[in-house]
TrEMBL record:
Annotated source species: Ferroplasma acidarmanus Fer1
Superkingdom of origin: Archaea
Pfam families: DUF790
Stored InterPro entries: Bax1
Name of protein: DUF790 family protein
Amino acid sequence: MELPGGGEKVFPSDLMIVRKLKTGLVFPVFLSDENSDYIDSVKTVFNENTGNNRETILKALKELELNSSSTKTIRALSLLFFRNSIFEPPVDVDAPALREDVFKIARIPPVNQDEKRNILKPVEEKYGLSMDEIINGLYADKESELVLHQAYSASNIEIARAYNLEQVETIMMRCSTLYITTSSDWSYTITSIKRLGLLFTAQIDGSKLKSIKITGPLEMFESPERYGSRFAMLIHKISQLENWAIEADIKIKDKFEKTVKVYKLKLSDTVSYYLPESNKTDSINYDFVEKAQPLIVNGTVYFPDYVMKIGDKTVYINITGKTYARQDNEIKENLKGKVNWENIFILRQKDKKMKDEIAFYEDIDFPALKLILSEKYSAKKKLNGELDDNSVDSIKKELEKLYPQTEKMFDYVESQGLIPERVLPALGYKLKWRGLDIIVTKND
């Protein structure tokens, strides 16, 4: 099963391997260096069958299963190898077109090689293929006929960690409620939750965030699989953190009693050794914005994604989507007069522009956002309201001399105790970003 937004996959539920305790706890069964013989045996099958088709490999793996002490482990590892190995068609040809041509000519099956050769001769000339290549290419588009070109070649520990993560994700497919009790990066965690469209509530202890409870429409259905893929994707992201801890309610069917029981899964960064190494990239390359911590106002916790300095003001940035427009605008209204809160909408290419909202397509443009917010928060006050006409004229003249030397213009405005991002636009200049550099230009 493929998961959107990253290409991750999970094992089928019948390959989930867990240890259930009478206390109601459940644990995934991990592979490690101690039981890497499973990996070696599957790796051997694939390496020895380079050049053979999938069907041949499946037969060899079936024999391996019969001689193994854990059929599920072999099947899950085999699936992992199939996904990460490179398969190619046995012949580079348009198989459906080739089949059509051959079947049109061979209405009556040939009884010997000579008849077969005579029948296939026009097809050989048309496609530039030998008779054997034509026979091999007839079903070249079928998965079973794909030929192994390169086997999955990662180290045993890397394979074991990939396997272990998929086992955890498969368990999370059956999650109904998830609690995140520890996170070394709450900003990253909350952003991940929101972008997956999961519903969450926060539990606070005074001025401290205690945990996050995550649920979703899943509770309205009998089958957790309808919503479980998002929990699977979330655990994939959380496991990338340096410090993390979760508790999850997992619904597992009892194959003997034919009932569904709820078990408690408890995992933390103590199992990080058994999972893939972190490749989380969430850095920001701008000095005017940073990731935000949870914000508690009047006993209620809010989760901005970023915090930005606009002049002498602190502005909290909430990254959201059209689906959450109503509730996020209610939050903004509730915080009015308490903090500066801005909802920034990320739209897909097919979405229409939103009236009276700050929105970007696909991803946020921080330099552009800073210019928008600088104008909104700093340019509200007219320059003439703070300075007399003589001072304004003097500043204008000096800036004219310095233009287009952006750095010197910024230094001069700041030396006057003023904010460049507000003063320059008020005096007829535009601020544009080129990479990490800001450039001053004149309005047309």
